[in-house]
């Protein structure tokens, strides 16, 4: 295979972005507005994301980890309050 074969090989874009969501898709999944996700990014309180040009992408596994962390924080706060009573 020479260099020209490498440059003309078909690229499967779906495979490249498998495991990633754009902001609109994540907003739909979480039943949030796109604006909310934008605010969270600005305040650095939401799930981690990466920017590719103007596109913002979220790795599905990172979003799941973030959700689990949110759950653990709430559970920990709930236990701390219950323990003080």
Walk me through the structure:
The protein is an alpha+beta fold. The protein has a single domain, classed as Orthogonal Bundle (Arc Repressor Mutant, subunit A), CATH 1.10.10. It is built from five helices and three strands; from the N terminus they run H-H-E-H-H-E-E-H. It has helices at residues 3-8, 13-16, 23-30, 34-43, 60-84, and strands at 20-22, 50-52, 55-59. Strands 1-3-2 form a three-stranded antiparallel β-sheet. Strand 2 (50-52) and strand 3 form a beta hairpin. Helix 3 crosses helix 4 (34-43). The model has no long low-confidence stretch (mean pLDDT 85).
The CATH topology annotation reads as Arc Repressor Mutant, subunit A
The secondary-structure class comes to alpha+beta
Helix content: 55-70%
Average pLDDT, rounded to a whole number, is 85
CATH architecture term = Orthogonal Bundle
Biggest beta-sheet profile? 3 strands, antiparallel
- Terminal Cα span: 72 Å
What string, H for helix and E for strand, traces the elements in order? HHEHHEEH
Q: Strand arrangement, largest sheet?
A: 1-3-2
Number of discrete domains: 1
Radius of gyration: 19 Å
Please count the helical segments.
5
* Spatial shape: elongated
* Top-tier CATH class: Mainly Alpha
Low-confidence stretches: none
Give the tally of β-strands. 3
């Amino acid at each position: 295979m020479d260099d020209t074969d490498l440059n003309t090989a078909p690229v499967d874009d779906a495979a490249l972005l498998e495991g990633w969501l754009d902001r609109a898709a994540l907003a739909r999944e979480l039943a949030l507005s796109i604006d909310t996700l934008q605010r969270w990014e600005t305040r650095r309180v939401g799930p981690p994301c990466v920017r590719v040009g103007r596109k913002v992408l979220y790795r599905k596994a990172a979003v799941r980890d973030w959700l689990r962390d949110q759950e653990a924080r709430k559970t920990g706060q709930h236990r701390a309050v219950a323990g003080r009573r």
